[in-house]
Design goal:
3 helices; mainly beta
């Protein structure tokens, strides 16, 4: 059980084999050097004129799911998937799910590939360091005229929490309701790429969905969705890429689509949106000293079309999937070049923002919060990374 000093404002009235221990040991043995990140953490923030109180996290459960599905008019549909859950599949986080498929020709050549990695991270109950809960690294690319990919990642985390009252003398669960303010922090990238800058990209899209739900069996209603948001980056005619949907928590953000076309050799179209420590605020009411649950659910999907198109979604992890796919399909380093280019614009691990979360100028509709201290409701420490990155597991 972790305890933190927090502040809030009073308000009266109111898996599969891929995810088993063998995968985890393989991941652990292939990395070296800790990596920090701050993707998708739930933080209870400070009220400006509130007295201090304490909070306890008494239980944590969660899951990670990854799936890659291959479609095509003249090829059988096939899929690879992985599920890892805490405490069913693994007793404690991290829960790691990984899936991968290639379109292999009779001569052994690979003409398309899709990779998915989803991670439910170990919690950081000390309240010190960079909070992190969720890691995604999704990527796909098709170099033939038949293969279509659906690449998905999903992570859930649910915590049981007890908050003390900020008002002296309030010691019972039937006391007045009070207000907690929180936020989600995002660091990552969504992108679409094509070998033809004028390709009709209709059908290519990258999607991100986030929700936070509060559960309290003694409340009316017993569940309340306190934050929800969807962001979709979608392709269109003549190489057009736009933010086709930004709803809920994303409605006031409207990030620009950045054009990196022709900056990478042999990648004439690359268009992205980035999240550099972006904050999404929310709030909820609670009864002091009465347990309740907060559940974070995050999912991301990529869909492409045949004929030299691909996409990626990376949050809370170093970039790797799309570069690995390009290496297998095109047998060159254009994917590595693209990752280096993206890294100049945003640290998808979030480590660059650990000194303080801020709203970049790309998101003028947002503003900073008056925060003096915080309780980390959902948090985690060092990240895993696979294949070309090395990693050391956090202390157990």
């Amino acid at each position: 059980m972790g305890r933190y000093r927090v502040h809030y404002s009073p308000r009266n009235s109111y898996g599969s084999s891929l995810a088993n221990g063998r995968l985890f040991m393989r991941v652990r043995e292939s990395r070296r050097g800790p990596i920090l990140a701050i993707i998708l953490s739930l933080i209870t923030c400070v009220g400006l004129a509130a007295s201090s109180a304490q909070a306890a996290v008494t239980a944590i459960v969660g899951s990670a799911r990854a799936r890659v599905v291959q479609f095509g008019p003249n090829i059988p549909t096939q899929s690879d998937s992985s599920v890892s859950t805490v405490p069913t599949t693994v007793p404690n986080p991290p829960a790691i799910a990984e899936a991968k498929l290639d379109r292999v020709q009779p001569d052994g050549g690979i003409t398309a590939g899709g990779d998915a990695l989803a991670v439910f991270e170990p919690p950081n109950l000390s309240g010190i360091g960079v909070p992190n809960d969720v890691g995604f690294d999704l990527g796909c690319f098709t170099d033939d005229n038949e293969t279509t990919w659906l690449v998905e990642g999903n992570v859930t985390e649910r915590r049981t929490i007890v908050l003390d009252s900020s008002q002296s003398g309030t010691e019972i669960a039937t006391g007045p309701t009070e207000l907690a303010r929180s936020r989600i922090v995002l660091s990552g990238v969504m992108l679409i790429t094509s070998l033809d800058p004028l390709r009709d990209l209709t059908g290519v899209e990258v999607e991100l969905n986030i929700s936070v739900t509060k559960y309290d069996a003694m409340a009316t209603p017993p569940s309340e969705q306190v934050l929800v948001g969807t962001m979709i980056l979608r392709g269109g005619p003549l190489g057009e890429v736009t933010v086709a949907e930004a709803t809920g928590a994303f409605a006031g953000i409207a990030p620009p689509v950045l054009d990196f076309s022709a900056l990478v050799i042999n990648l004439p179209l690359v268009k992205t949106i980035i999240f550099a420590g972006v904050e999404l605020p929310y709030e909820y009411s609670f009864r002091p000293n009465r347990p309740f649950d907060l559940e974070l659910e995050v999912s991301s999907q990529i869909r492409n079309i045949p004929g030299g198109t691909g996409g990626a979604a990376v949050f809370g992890l170093p970039q790797s999937s799309l570069g690995d796919v390009f290496a297998r399909v095109k047998n060159d380093d254009r994917g590595d070049q693209l990752e280096a280019l993206i890294s100049e614009q945003v640290d998808t691990t979030g480590a660059a923002y650990q000194g303080g979360v801020s709203i970049p100028s790309l998101f003028p509709a947002c503003g900073l919060f008056g925060i003096e201290s915080a309780m980390l409701i959902f948090a985690a420490g060092s990240l895993i990374r696979r294949r070309r990155r090395r990693w050391t597991p956090p202390a157990r």
